[in-house]
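Hi Y.,

Following your request, here is the sequence exactly as I used it, all 712 residues.
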Amino acid sequence: MKLRVVLTWAATALMASTGVWAQTPAADSLRRERLLETVVVTGTGTQNALKNTPIETEVISGKMLRQYAGQSIEDILGSLSSSIDFGENDMGSHIQMNGLGNGYILILIDGKRIHGDNGGENDLGLIDPQNIDRIEIVKGASSALYGSDAIAGVINIITKKHTEAVLLNNSTRVGSYGDVRQHNSVGLSFGKWASLTRFQLQHSDGWQNTSVEDPSQTEFLITDSRNKTVNRYTNYQLAERLTYALNPAVELYADGSLYWKRIYRPSGKYAQSDVKTYDMEYQNASVSGGGKWKINKDDFVTLDVDWNRHAYYYNFTDTTLVDGYVNGRFTPYFPYFPGQKDLQSDQQRTMANLKGVFLLPEFNRLSVGAEWRYDWLDAPMRVAGGRATDNTEALFIQDEWNKLKWLQLTGGMRLTRNEQFGTKLTPKLSAMLSLGDFRIRTTWSKGFKTPTPKELHYRYVRDMNGTYLYLGNTDLKPQRSDYFSLNGEYRTGRLSISATPYYNKVRDMIALVTIPTTAAPGDLIVTYDPVKVRQYKNLEQAKTYGVDVTARYAVGEWSMGGGYSYLDTEAEQYDSNHERMRRVIIDGMAHHKANVFLNWNHSFTRAYKLGVGLFGRMSTKRYYQINGNGKGYQLWRLTTSHTFLRGKHTTYALDAGVDNIFNYCDRTYHGLHLGTTSPGRTVYATFNIKFSKGKKFNNNNTNFKSNQDEED
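Below is the corresponding structure, written out as tokens. Let me know if you'd prefer a different format.
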């Protein structure tokens, strides 16, 4: 109750204060023009000024990213967008946006899909926070433009662009609990060639918020468990991008990356809860290529082809007898010894995307394209039959009509054919009415999502205070959705206020549901004797609805604002035991979430600039079907940024701050859900040095416009 009062008070105070401040004198015209001309690309797939895009888009700017100095992309999104939340564990980051989870949220890097599904939870360590220029968030079904993974929305990570002839960049961050974040990049331009090489390393010693196991799942009270809240881990990534300007109209590119991660799990003395005999290891690789042909000032064609691999291993730390496939044959109780590895899953994806954008008469901008995708999963111990594949092709078309200054219309559709589930047409229609500084936007869109190979064929055993059995379901049906939203926005050079009520109805939604143990295959019951069995099932229908509110205000050296998100969900499932419909919740839902910020920046001299920021994020209780609910929380963060200019080509910067300044720590027993995994108060410091010289060959062919220089 107290937290709900605080949230209500914070939102009311924020709205009231911005209403008063809006009556103060206007900021200088240059700053106003820069804010108005922020360019976004995600909502329509084409460049639009933020104020003029018919698709509501939330932007986390480069300036905000620098001021916040987030440790990870999870930290950044969870703190700077009120409608996004995370539940992290060893398998990755379970993201939720407006009530829907990972499988419904499409994450892009420069418009291209991230790859790394990991037990249904993405490993967002693939994203280097130091390489982000800005983040664009589009909520609601975007299947017409982006395909089946975008029923809840799209998060597009726009990376920094290398425009210098020579670029050398180093960022080193250290913090509490052995936290180390290292980033290095080297950019070179020679003639029509350009190269950008990046390296990142992330490490944490992990921490333990409690040593007590869930008493309901253990034979006796365990108070000295070695299970950690967050385990020690190390990951690194090496990436290279080459571009070649064939001529002023054509630019080609090729890039690739290697990624490795290991999660170190301590072993305790209680076999039923904390004995660990293996660490988790992940290996990713990607290769892509393509180009852009700029036919004239307005028309262009792009081609992208990419291959991605995500492999997940057990790396054994003690002698262990497990079931496995040895030389292609199933071998029960096969011995593994320390240092040996066992492949759990190897996911590979190949995609090709051809797209053209053309300016037509009567103020029409047409986007057309075709996409081909092939997914291949090899998981001997996790997929029935050991291997599964999926193949999808799609055609899409979109038209943006803006003949009238006060009205913009965008309509599109996508025709998707899946080898197992047939063909489906998904349309989308958006409109924006402009009334001076006011904008009214509305969107209706349909979504279509086929079951993944994992959802169809998964078979996974997990020891977690007893044996849990997770099963796929070959009887699953595709999911369909209808999304409606209405957005009202007031935006000037210094003030923006936006409110968006929305409604998303998903039919045949796929979710993990607890089923009777007797409903599992008999051979698995005999082998594993599980305490709980969960299986992917189609819910009859699910609904998410709520409202998102954001407000931003800037005057002189100050900027402030925040957001509030109200969410409710309903889901229905047929209970075969009692022959009736029963209502279930969508895991991870919280009714109320909010974030606020206050920033001050001042240039004392040309050689020194100081920024100070205060950030807060709050959430009420998160609901789950099993293992308890997550507690509500408030976390506050104090940041400082110091920019030193030395010489013509070199810039030095230091960021330092305190996270969770009021030292809140969720000490819920192991095995139950947490509201937050924060260890309490922590400190950090980041040192940055950048050397740049000259400009590379300008082909005027950049896919995404950077706002970094404008904002800074």
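The chain is about 10% helix and 55% strand.

Thanks again,
Q.
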